[in-house]
Specification:
This protein has 7 helices and 13 strands. By secondary structure, it is α/β, with parallel strands linked by helices. The strands form 2 sheets. Strands 6, 7, 8, 9, 10, 11 and 12 form a 7-stranded mixed β-sheet that branches. A 6-stranded mixed β-sheet has the order 5-4-3-2-1-13. α1 runs parallel beside α3.
Length: 306
């Protein structure tokens, strides 16, 4: 591991996206970047699919072997609200990163510029405005009827003064080999944009921080039933949702599995923390899953990265 800077200031945004509205979601993102930048963070992190929101509980008219026209219309509305990497929205976010002088991680629904398929993606902008996009390897459950499997952008990492940082989206973190693929790249900060407000997830993220000897940034969102547009076709599924659809629980875990910041529930907020970047290397004295605590003569991971 190369020498890295001692401290990294993080601003973790827990907020409610504006569902199905690309323009309003983008404005809210830019507003939060401006708000957070007052504290001069090095890294600003947003949740999964923050643009244009995660449509929890919807099925878009899919059932086994059948689809509905009403579901297609709702899906097309979400498709239109998704973002093409490199288009106007990216330019505005790139400019915001340059203005803030920060690395910025944002979850978004990506519309492929050529083939049109949607991907559940996460982008990390650098302070010079450049960026790398990671696409979710395997959408979870019925996410697969909305977003496709990644066919590029598997495990990009961003080199920073605090070491390499990367992301796995939501339940990608339950793919053990995907975690190892990031560990092998030497990440010191593991970003997880997600919608997991269940208590079991808190145990998962503590485990991963210990296993990877890295900081785990748990970026969750707030979603309420009132977030959903009232003119969607899929009213029955939405009507059955609880008033609080996703409660958040965003937090930061250190490489020993301890909370740097405790989980925050049910409110929109920006969580600020200063990370001691000596810990990722210090903690590897006794355990390094891809180094001295590995057995490459017995176990080998082959990654077809691109």
């Amino acid at each position: 591991m190369k020498d890295i800077a001692d401290k990294c200031k993080v601003a973790l945004v827990q907020a409610e996206p504006v569902l199905f509205d690309k323009k309003a979601s983008l404005k809210k993102t830019l507003d939060y970047i401006e708000k957070a930048s007052v504290q001069k963070p090095d890294l600003i992190v947003f949740p999964e699919l923050f643009i244009p929101g995660y449509p929890i509980g919807m099925n878009f008219g899919f059932s086994m072997g059948k689809r509905t026209q009403a579901g297609r219309e709702d899906w097309k509305r979400y498709y239109d609200a998704s973002v093409v990497a490199g288009d106007q929205e990216f330019q505005l976010l790139s400019d915001a990163a340059k203005k803030a002088g920060a690395y910025i991680s944002i979850g978004f629904s990506e519309r492929d510029a050529v083939i049109g398929t949607l991907y559940n993606s996460n982008v990390i902008f650098e302070p010079d405005g450049s960026y790398k996009v990671h696409r979710k390897l395997k959408p979870t459950g019925t996410e697969r009827v909305v977003w496709g499997d990644a066919h590029e952008g598997y495990f990009p990492v961003t080199e920073t003064p605090w070491g390499p940082i990367g992301s796995l989206i939501c339940w990608e973190s339950y793919m053990p080999l995907a975690r190892v693929a990031l560990y092998q790249k030497g990440i010191t900060i593991y970003i997880s944009p997600n919608t997991n407000d269940n208590p079991e997830w808190q145990a998962t993220i503590q485990h991963i921080a210990i296993e990877g000897k890295c900081y785990f940034i748990n970026a969750d969102m707030i979603v309420s039933k009132a977030s959903y547009p009232t003119d969607l076709n899929e009213k029955d599924s939405i009507g059955q949702l609880p008033e609080k659809v996703c409660r958040g629980g965003s937090c930061i875990i250190d490489p020993y599995g301890h909370y740097v910041t405790e989980p925050v529930w049910d409110v929109e907020t920006v969580i600020y923390a200063e990370l001691d970047m000596n810990l990722p290397s210090e903690s590897k004295m006794e355990h390094d899953a891809v180094g001295h605590y590995a057995r490459p003569d017995v176990l080998e991971l082959i990654v077809n990265d691109r």
